[in-house]
Amino acid sequence: MQKSEFPTPEPRPQNLDPGQGRAARVVVARPSGFCFGVERAIKLAKQGKEQHGRVYTLGELVHNPLVLEELEAGGIRKVTRPERARDGALVIRAHGCPPKVLARCRELGIRVIDATCPYVRKVQDVARRLTEEGYLVVVVGERNHPEVRSILGQTSGKARVYRPGMRVRARKIGLVCQTTMSRDRLRAAVANLSSLRYTELRVFDTICGEVTSRQDAASRVARQSDLVVVVGGRSSANTSRLAEIVRQAGKRLVFVERASELAKAGSRIRQARRIGVVAGSSTPDWVVRDVAQRATNLSKEDRR
Ligand code: F3S
Fold first, then answer.
1. Any bridge partners for residue 253, and if so which?
2. 175 near 193, Cβ under 8 Å?
């Protein structure tokens, strides 16, 4: 886990008035920017492009529109079915995919660049092993998220996705979770399933360390801010989780994908004295810097 670079808060004058021409203090949560798995997937896709000419990604490589725009500009396009990648190589994204997709690629003779994040692969391996050992695998995660589908695929469709109050009839349950889940959700699922009688419960905390460190940083920054800007793709699970953490801390929230969207939140930025910036693991560092700079400028402009 990376060491937090969140700066120690500086003493502030008690009577600081937003109307005195001072910019808000903008604090960026650390770590931010791409996680290891996303960075690796992008690198593999770009290398694939150099080596094979035509490269496609099965679904969005990253849940971030700016990154997708950049990849498209470089000739790396998304397809929804392996059949569409017959004339090139197909990148399996960091979320992984069910084994039947890989089997289909083999059948079609498609060259595969497997960018499944090694941490996701570990969850897949655990789910497969538990199924082989006779456990009913329960996945704490979002039913339709590609990562969850890739985990379910390892159990020949036998695993179930957790929901509160679910009825489970099994002597042995193996619990795993989507790498981007919050620890609170995992705890709640464990507490719930532990209450089943005569049932063995094995729990695998498969939350990614990169996710945990970002969630901890988001919660630290939220505590110390009046307003928090969450930066990331609207379809990104880990970015949505950060927004949830900020809301739970009872702080005002602005969700943006890019710096230009901040203009719409001008009045809220004007009112804030301390602004936190947190970003999901699929958000490039340059976008985070851009947002922090724009927030500082906006708050200065508004306070003149
Ligand atoms: Fe992998 Fe963790 Fe990123 S599981 S894709 S390193 S958030």
1. 228
2. yes
Q: Which residues partner with 208 through β-bridges?
A: none
Catalytic-role residue among 60, 147, 210, 257: 147
pLDDT score recorded for residue 21:
59
pLDDT digits (tens, 9 = 90+) for 108-162: 999 999 999 999 999 999 999 999 999 999 999 999 999 999 999 999 989 999 9
Nearest Cα residue to atom 2 of ligand 1 = 208
Residue found by looking up tokens 């890019």 in the block:
258
Cα separation values, 198 from 172, 173, 194, 203, 213, Å: 9, 11, 10, 16, 36
Question: Pocket of ligand 1, candidates 207, 281, 283: which has the most ligand atoms within 8 Å of its Cβ, to mutate?
Answer: 281
Distance CA 16, CA 22 (A): 9
Quick: pLDDT tens for 150-209. Answer: 999 999 989 999 999 898 989 999 999 999 988 889 999 999 999 998 999 999 999 999
Give the C-alpha separation, 15 to 144, whole Å.
Answer: 50
How many of the other CB atoms lie within 10 Å of CB of 91?
28
CA distance 106 to 114: 13
CB neighbour list of residue 284: distance below 8 Å, 6 or more residues apart:
33, 34, 64, 66, 67
Q: Which residue has the tokens 């655990």?
A: 126
d(C-alpha 116, C-alpha 41), whole Å: 7
